[in-house]
Structure formats: C-alpha cells, structure tokens
C-alpha cells in the first residue's frame, strides 16, 4: 500500500512537472514566433526583388534618399509608392530610389503638384497581423496561466507559485552521530531526551510526559549548531529535513505561508522526524505595531506558530531552530509548546578545544612534534569551525612547503595567519624595523616581569602580518572566567609597554602610531573594569554602560554628565598609571631590553623560552637568521 501511494505521488509530481513544462514550451513557441515575425518583417521591408529591363538586363540598383533629399528634389520625382513610412519609385531620369519618410499629406501634395504620380498602399500583410495579435494572445495566455492557480481555492495561486519556486530542502537520514560532535558534552546530554523519544516514544507517553516540540539552538557562529541538529537525527535514525529561514521569504505576498505549509506537510508524511530551520531569525523576528513593518514576514511567522502548536499539535515532528540572535525572536515563538527548550552552545573551553582538535586531527596527517594540548591552550575564543579551519590551513601550508604531514611550524603559521592575517612582504625603512623591534621587546620584557599573575609569553616576532608590524603572543595555561584587579593593571602595563619602550629608547618626539591597537585594547579593558566590573573606588559599584547607537558617540547610559566626566578621568588615570609603571620597569632594565631588541632584529622571532633566557641573563641558543635581510638589519642596528 505504501509503494502504491508513493507511485501515485510520483505520478502526480510527474504530471505537475509536465504541466509546468507545457506552459513553458508554449511561452517559448510564442516568443519564437514573434521573433521570427519581426525578423521577416524587417527583411521584407528592406529587401526588394531585382527588376529586369525589356532587353533582359538587370535594372540599376535603387539609390537610397534621405527625407531631406525628397524635400529638396521634389521636382525630380516621377513616381512614388508610399507604404507606411517607406517610399519607393523612380526619378525623372529613370533612376529607382527608396526612402524613409514621415507621412505628411501636405508634403505629398507639393510633390504631386510637380507632376509626380503618387500611390498610397494601406493594406496589411500577414506579418503586420502577426505583430499585432501575438502580443495580445501572449497577454491573454499569461492571465489564464496566473488564474489557473485559483482552481485549488483561495490559496491556489500561492501554492502554484510555491511549486514553481520550491524551497531548498535537504532530506535524508544523516550518518552523523554524537561521536562526530566534540567539545559540547553538556549540550549533548541536554538533547539525549529527544533522541530517546524518537527511538522509543511509548515510554514517554505511558508516563504522560510530553516531549519538547521545538528546540532552539543559539550561540556564536561556528559552534556546531547545524552539526548538532544532524547528529540528533543520525543518532535517532529518523528522517531529517533542513531548510534556511531565508528560503521562506519572497517578493510575492503569501508565498512564505505556502512554503511553510509545504515543508510541514512533507514532514508529517515522514513523522517521526526532525525539521531543522537554520537562521530562523529571518522569519521569526519580533512583531511590532509599526505601519511600515513587513506584513508578509509576519504572516509567515503566524503560519509557523500555528504549525508548531496549532489545532493539531500531535504531529510527531520535532522542530529544531538555529540562530545567532535569539534576542531578536518573537516571544510567541519562544513560549512553552513551541520552542520548549533553548540550548545555548558556548565557545569550547580548554578541554573542549582539545577534544575538537583530537577529532579533526584524525582526518589529517599530523606529525609527532605537534602538541595539541599547547595548540588548545593558544586558541582561546576559537569555535569548532575555527579549529577545523586552523588544521586545514596548517595542512595547506605543509603541502605548499612539500611536506607530507603537518608539523609544528605549519601549525604556528596557520595560527598566526588566522589571528593576525597573512604574512606581508613590506619594504620597510631600517629605522622602522629597529623601532618595531624595540616596541615588541618592551611588550615581551614587561610580560616576563608580570609572569606570576599573567598568561605566560609564547613568542615575540617582528614579521609583519595584516596591519601589524609585529606582535607578542601569550599562551594561557587554562581558561579564565574572571580577572583580579592586579591582573587588570598588569595587562594594562603590558599593553602600553610598547609605547613606553619607544619613549625610553628613542625619545618622546620619536613615538609613532604603531601603538594604535595597544592603546585601543587597553582603553577597552580599563573602561570595562571601571564602568561594568566595579573595580574603581572613585566610580564605585554602579554599572554604567557606554552606548553607541548607529556609529554615533553618545553619553554614558544611566549616568549624569558629572559621572561621565568622572569615568573619563578615571580611565585616563588608570592608563597613565599603567604607562608610568611600564616606563619605570623599562628604564631600570634598559640593557636587558636592548638585548631582546637586538635578538629580534637578528632572528625576527623569539620563543618564550628564549625570551626568558635573555631576561634571566642566560645565553640563548643561537639560530641562523631566517632571511638575508636580518643581517642587514643587524649591521644597521650596530651602527
């Protein structure tokens, strides 16, 4: 019986497709006929058959006269045959002519007064009739084709248009399971109830429990929302239907409603199943009473609300939505009975990043010298997609350099490329290279001075990447959820140590704009600590946010003008204190900082161990310069 129904559905789909093809073929035939008619008409209007003289020779080719020639040579015209705007005839000397004129009875009367014989032909050929009636017939056929959709009822037209413009739906039973999802164990545990219901829903119904009808997955981009939805379907071995929220919007009013009905009807025929709507905020945005609001989108949202928890709510369909902006969704969509459960997928922590790296490392060839634990430590804030891209970039770098497996060099290059941008080949002045080396040496030295309360330094380099001329990287030991005020002040001093190093070694009149990103980062940290974290004694524990609407600067929220001035003064005081602290440390240890800068000039990159060895007075292992330009820079620095 099931095969018979499937065959009937297939036959209906074939008939629908054949009707669409027939309508399209009729349009093509009519367009082709009109095109041929216009071509034939143009050729018949411009081509004339060659005429023969009584002696059997060909008559001379007609000359083509302009409208001005006709007016100026009116006394030379012997005969004129006029058809529309085309004129032809002979001159008094027997020369045939053709011309394009504007029909003017007064002008023709003047030509006739000079003795010319004029004949007017107002008859129409089949080409003229074709050019007149074909557009009319096409318009009538188009109106009939449009109104044919009303045969299915009031919504027949939109359903017909929905069939003409189908929603892109991914179907099938995914092979992805929870084993393919790493780094989000708590989220997987939260969704195991859904898998149990899809496998055996009877034990839930016997107790009287109602399984969630909808699950909303939210979180940062790349955290694995789509992968997790596919894993639920694969773990439960049920059909999986996936579509994007933008697929349900269109320029024709009512088309989104028809598409919502279409995909839910398809899901009901395959229940129990999972219906996944990615980027659901495209159709689920909060409704408003504004007159300019998108009424079609609201109708689509209303239909989605009805399908999820309407008059027939026992459908066996579990709707999974994914969005990066859960705050934009309509409250009616988030209430119990629709999206009963909301799962926020956070960025993976240190253990989660290690699990994700272990998972993706099985798909590529990784050398034994690659420490995945160190790589997980150095990728704080990376999502699962970022980590997969990191290993892929490392694999590409290994192939470019002729290696058959990923080494630690490839991983370092890939991480630097993602964090800072690709390596830049810039022609820099020797003095700029030297200043960059001292700038980064300042960051590195102050980082060592605060190594007991800040993240350990990983490396320092003066190789340009992106907009940065150099950088100092830190490698966190573990993930931090908060910072003490001592850590905040230490990080401020480290951020401003580059500018302080420029002043100490080159003078206040030689400072550059290279500290732009350092100053911006330090300002954000200081303002956050003062206005949000309540770490300032002068401002107190009041939470004050800096609002910035549409790129315009505005006052501090929930603060008077006097408080805003106090916050600005406190931010400046914190930054000045951090700058003074960094300057004091660098001034007392100028020779050590100079050694760091000279090593950077010679070798371009120093590891954390090498930096610590120089600061502690030990002899760092010498390495050959990476580039020939390093020798030139060293000579210049010696001068």
Describe the protein in words.
By secondary structure, the chain is an alpha/beta fold. Helix content is 50%, strand content 10%. The chain contains 24 helices and 13 strands. It has helices spanning 2-46, 67-72, 105-113, 126-147, 156-164, 185-190, 192-199, 202-207, 225-236, 255-269, 295-309, 331-334, 350-361, 372-377, 384-400, 408-420, 430-449, 485-495, 497-506, 516-531, 561-588, 590-603, 608-615, 629-638, and strands at residues 63-65, 77-83, 86-91, 96-100, 117-120, 214-219, 240-244, 273-278, 317-323, 341-345, 457-461, 471-474, 605-607. The strands form 3 sheets. Strands 1-4-3-2-5 form a 5-stranded mixed sheet. A 5-stranded parallel sheet has the order 7-8-9-6-10, with helices on both faces. Strand 8, helix 11 (295-309) and strand 9 (317-323) form a beta-alpha-beta unit. Helix 7 (192-199) runs parallel beside helix 9 (225-236), helix 18 (485-495) packs across helix 21 and helix 19 packs across helix 21 (561-588). The relative contact order is 0.05.
Which secondary structure elements does this structure contain, and how are they paired or packed?
Elements: H1 2-46, E1 63-65, H2 67-72, E2 77-83, E3 86-91, E4 96-100, H3 105-113, E5 117-120, H4 126-147, H5 156-164, H6 185-190, H7 192-199, H8 202-207, E6 214-219, H9 225-236, E7 240-244, H10 255-269, E8 273-278, H11 295-309, E9 317-323, H12 331-334, E10 341-345, H13 350-361, H14 372-377, H15 384-400, H16 408-420, H17 430-449, E11 457-461, E12 471-474, H18 485-495, H19 497-506, H20 516-531, H21 561-588, H22 590-603, E13 605-607, H23 608-615, H24 629-638
Parallel strand pairs: 1-4, 2-5, 6-9, 6-10, 7-8, 8-9
Antiparallel strand pairs: 2-3, 3-4, 11-12, 11-13
Helix pairs in contact: 1-4, 5-10, 7-9, 10-11, 13-15, 15-16, 17-18, 17-19, 17-22, 18-20, 18-21, 19-21, 20-21, 22-24
């Amino acid at each position: 019986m099931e095969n018979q129904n499937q065959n009937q559905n297939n036959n209906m789909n074939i008939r629908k497709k054949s009707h669409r093809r027939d309508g399209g073929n009729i349009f093509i035939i009519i367009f082709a006929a009109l095109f041929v008619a216009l071509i034939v008409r143009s050729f018949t209007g411009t081509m004339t058959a060659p005429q023969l003289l009584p002696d059997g020779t060909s008559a001379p080719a007609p000359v083509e006269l302009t409208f001005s020639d006709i007016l100026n040579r009116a006394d030379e015209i012997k005969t004129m045959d006029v058809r529309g705007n085309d004129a032809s005839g002979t001159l008094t000397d027997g020369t045939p002519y053709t011309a394009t004129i504007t029909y003017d009875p007064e002008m023709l009367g003047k030509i006739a007064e000079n003795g010319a014989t004029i004949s007017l032909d107002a008859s129409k050929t089949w080409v003229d009739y074709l050019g007149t009636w074909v557009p009319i017939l096409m318009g009538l056929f188009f109106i009939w084709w449009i109104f044919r959709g009303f045969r299915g009822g009031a919504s027949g037209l939109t359903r017909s248009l929905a069939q003409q413009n189908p929603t892109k739906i991914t179907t099938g039973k995914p092979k992805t399971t929870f084993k393919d999802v790493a780094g989000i164990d708590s989220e997987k545990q939260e969704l195991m109830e859904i898998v149990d219901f899809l496998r055996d829903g009877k034990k839930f119904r016997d107790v009287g429990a109602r399984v969630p009808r909808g699950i909303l997955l939210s979180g940062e981009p790349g955290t694995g929302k789509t992968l997790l939805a596919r894993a639920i379907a694969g773990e439960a071995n049920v059909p999986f239907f996936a579509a994007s929220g933008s697929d349900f919007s269109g320029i024709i009013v009512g088309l989104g409603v028809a598409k919502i009905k279409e995909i839910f009807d398809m899901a009901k025929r395959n229940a129990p199943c999972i219906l996944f709507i990615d980027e659901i905020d495209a159709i689920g945005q909060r409704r408003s009473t504004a007159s300019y609001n998108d009424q079609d989108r609201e109708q689509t949202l209303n239909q989605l609300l009805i399908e999820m928890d309407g008059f027939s709510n026992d459908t066996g369909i579990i709707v999974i939505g994914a969005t990066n902006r859960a705050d934009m969704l309509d409250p009616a969509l988030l209430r119990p009975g629709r999206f009963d459960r909301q799962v926020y997928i956070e960025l993976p922590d240190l253990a989660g990043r290690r699990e994700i790296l272990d998972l993706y490392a099985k798909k590529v060839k990784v050398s034994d010298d690659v420490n995945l634990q160190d790589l997980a430590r150095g990728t704080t804030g990376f999502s699962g997609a970022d980590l997969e891209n990191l290993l892929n970039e490392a694999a590409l770098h290994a192939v470019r350099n002729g290696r058959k497996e990923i080494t630690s060099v490839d991983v370092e290059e890939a991480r630097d490329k993602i964090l800072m941008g690709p390596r830049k080949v810039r022609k820099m002045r020797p003095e700029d290279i030297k200043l960059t080396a001292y700038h980064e040496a300042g960051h590195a030295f102050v980082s060592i001075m605060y190594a007991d309360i800040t993240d350990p330094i990983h490396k320092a380099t003066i190789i340009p990447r992106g907009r940065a001329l150099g950088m100092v990287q830190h490698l966190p030991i573990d993930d931090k959820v908060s910072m003490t005020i001592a850590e905040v002040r230490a990080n401020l001093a480290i951020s401003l140590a580059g500018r302080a190093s420029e002043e100490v070694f080159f003078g206040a009149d030689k400072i550059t704009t290279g500290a732009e990103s350092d100053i911006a980062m330090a300002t954000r940290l200081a303002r956050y600590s003062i206005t949000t974290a309540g770490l300032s004694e002068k401002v107190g524990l009041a939470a004050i946010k800096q609002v910035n609407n549409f790129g315009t600067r505005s006052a501090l929220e929930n603060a008077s003008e006097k408080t805003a001035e106090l916050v600005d003064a406190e931010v400046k005081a914190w930054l000045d204190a951090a700058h003074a602290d960094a300057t004091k440390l660098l001034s007392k240890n100028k020779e050590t900082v100079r050694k760091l800068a000279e090593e950077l000039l010679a070798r371009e990159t120093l590891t954390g161990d090498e930096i610590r060895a120089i600061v502690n007075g030990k002899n760092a292992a010498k390495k050959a310069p990476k580039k020939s330009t390093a020798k030139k820079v060293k000579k210049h620095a010696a001068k």
